[in-house]
Amino acid sequence: MTDEGAPETSYNREVIRLPDRRVVWANLGVLLCITPIPATAALLGTHWQEPVALVLDAVNLLLATATLWGLWRSAVAGGALRGPGRQPLSGAYVDRFAVIAVTGYALAVPAAFLSPPEALGLVFLTTALARTLAHRRAPAPG
After folding, report:
1. Could you tell me which residues come within 8 angstroms of residue 92 by beta carbon, excluding any fewer than 6 positions away?
2. Are 85 and 15 a contacting pair, CB within 8 Å?
């Protein structure tokens, strides 16, 4: 058991330290943003050609991605992650993923009013594109 009363697993001891208040509040922000995802997805499933449904889903996913990025940054800044070399590589991936995903979801908002089918495709493809593009590393200088 830890000092806080939570059981420690081997994964917790190797990778994660006890978080500070910023990490806890950032985690609560993430939970607040991901809670409506099933509702907005269901709304989008029944009204996929309605711009408002597309905008609600895109904004919900944008906020969830942004708060997840904030949680990552809070955990890194608070020293909650352990292990040599984990933070630079993981941090670069998370930063690239967040920028690409937020950009894709933000572009889907005005696109929903111009062409709902294309905006729907953008919402669905954004995560896959963000993951694929975030894995690509910049070429080494020199």
Report:
1. 137
2. no
Structure tokens, 69: 């990025």
- Give residue-wise pLDDT tens across range 47-97: 988 999 999 999 999 999 999 999 888 887 766 666 655 556 677 888 899
Q: What is the maximum alpha-carbon separation in the chain? A: 55
Contact 33, 67 (CB under 8 A): yes
DSSP summary character for residue 49: T
Q: Dihedral sign, CA of 91, 9, 20, 38?
A: positive
Q: Which amino acid is at 101?
A: A
Domain-wise residue ranges, the chain: 20-135
H helices present in the chain, as ranges: 10-15, 21-34, 37-46, 51-77, 86-114, 116-135
